[in-house]
Amino acid sequence: MAELTSTAGLVALGACVVALAALVVAVGATVGLRRARADQRAVLGEHGRDDLVTHAANLQRDFEALHASVQEVASRLDARLGTAERRLDGAVTHRGLVRYDAYNEMSGRQSTTIALLDAQRSGIVLSSIAHRDQARLYAKQIVAGVSDLQLSPEEEEALRLATDGPVAPRVGRSGSS
Fold first, then answer.
1. Which end of the chain has less Cβ packing within 10 Å, N or C?
2. 151/101 same-domain check
3. pLDDT at residue 169 above 60?
């Protein structure tokens, strides 16, 4: 113990403390360096030898390529959606159905009139008139909610139900239903 109280012992003890502090600093630096390398691998990849600026430039290039690809897909989808919307405009979107007894018979409302219209209120009105021994089918074209032929009251009602509003006045020649 006397050796530790001498000058040489105190210097040796101080050197041990400094060496121990240096060891703690070295371990801390090693741990910090490992964390920094792990973070660098997360950003640059396993075999990343590029510097951060080159990596950022590569990311920017890849992002621009992805953006261009997404824009191309969006343009194609817009074109397809436009085509689908144009096709749907011609589909039946409005319909009205009326059942009734024709010829003042009590036959259980077997006569039927149906209006089938697209988004522009154009289409057809079909009437099936049932009689005891026969049935007749009448078809009338509708353009923008108007028929060029005279409509029967049942056809007007079916058209009104389909358009959900008043029937526009008819123009043109008259015909039988």
1. N
2. yes
3. no
Tokens 């530790």, located at residue: 4
Q: What is the C-alpha separation between 28 and 124, in angstroms, rounded? A: 86
Task: Report the domain count for the chain.
Answer: 3
Cα separations in angstroms, 99 against 72, 116, 155: 52, 15, 10
Query: pLDDT tens digits, residue range 16-73?
Result: 999 999 999 999 999 999 998 888 777 777 666 667 778 788 889 999 999 999 999 9
Return d(Cα 54, Cα 51) in angstroms, integer: 6
Q: Do the domain assignments include residue 147? A: yes
153: closest CA among 130, 127, 134, 123?
A: 127
Look at the alpha carbons of 102, 106, 110, 114 in this order and tell me if their dihedral is positive or negative. Answer: positive
Question: Which contiguous run of DSSP H or E holds residue 112?
Answer: strand 111-117
- Residues 14 and 73 occupy one common structural domain: no
In-domain check, residue 169: no
Nearest CA to 121 out of 95, 83, 82 is that of 95
Could you tell me if 56 and 101 lie in one domain? Answer: no
Which domain covers residue 26, as residue numbers? Answer: 1-46
* φ and ψ of 137, to 5 deg: -120, 130
| 1 lies in the same domain as 37 | yes
